[in-house]
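Quick illustration, no need to memorize.
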Amino acid sequence: MRIGIITETFLPKVDGIANTLCHVLTHLAARPEHSALMLAPAGAPDHFANTRVIGLPAAHFPFYPELKLASPLSNIGAHFDAYKPDVIHVVNPVSLGIAGLRYARRNNIPVVASYQTDIPGFVTRWGYGFLSKPLYAYLRWIHSQADLNIAPSRATRDELAAHGFKHLNIWGRGVDCARFNPSRRSDEWRARLTAGHPSAPLLMFTGRVAREKRIDWLRAVLDAIPQARLAIIGDGPARPELEQLFNDGRAVFTGFLGGVDLACAYASADVFVFPSANETFGNVLLEAMASGLPVVAAASGGPLDVVQHGRTGLFFAPEDKRAMTAAVQNLLTDSGLARQLSLNARAEATGRSWEARIGELLAFYESAITAACARQDALRTPASPMRGFKRVASAE
């Protein structure tokens, strides 16, 4: 199968979308019967795994400088004309994805679209709730042009269905349990992440350091648990503001980590705390669980598909900061509970391999191709001249 991928974001920007695509391309490289060509905003590497990546002119988004958007009028025809994809996957289509949809429809190529970011939810968090309804209408228009729309979790699928999105299915995420493993625990990393206090309870957050992630909520946790330390793994536009908020030396900002460093950081912590309430999945939750960390997360969105309350982690009501703090305190004071959740979290993560997830994605591609072929066959079938007439039973 020849797969054309169009994404609104990729490396060097590090986020859940780029992380997912890296896994997809890596696993496709191990399947010689498949190939891919990816189009992304300029600045991306020329290749990833066995896939050629073509960068297209893009401009920085005014409200989020890390994000570069390529125009919906981008000239992608020459690239795909030469490659001749069997299916096109538009990833989180907002701008460049529209060019992919237009090309696919013009050339009768089936399209799979993945919804990965709760943009309407984020703008509401930013204080622009009046934009939520028109944003849903815009995204619904985009996704209405796809043969299949895949959401990363049941909660996201249900939310999209409630807003009139059609042709919906679920494609979850996997985790590399060989890389993310409790055996990576390191005294050196623990000392680094606690700023030289390795015996202190170590809390961890990993992800984009942005306002919508509500990392500032963790200030209340540290205030309630004076002996605790916090490691914030990642980077983003809110970092300077948060460094001022956490200016008492009890929080360590590492910036982006990858590879073995990231795996060691996870395994060296005690509890993973994830305050965000607008996640469509939450890849970092699976990484933490695979590393043997009990997790504390908001009971909304994608985490509902990842965490099992009381078994692999603890949920808190999405708008209840005190409940989040109480959940963390519970895990730090009840070592037996924390240990059991840790073991269960690791066991749960081992059943969610990327190999299985890529198999599901390929099946969705095949399904879209089959549906498109059936549609074309129907269009080629001449209409019956008797269509629209009722057959009248003979009086004889």
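The CA atoms of residues 219 and 296 lie 15 Å apart.
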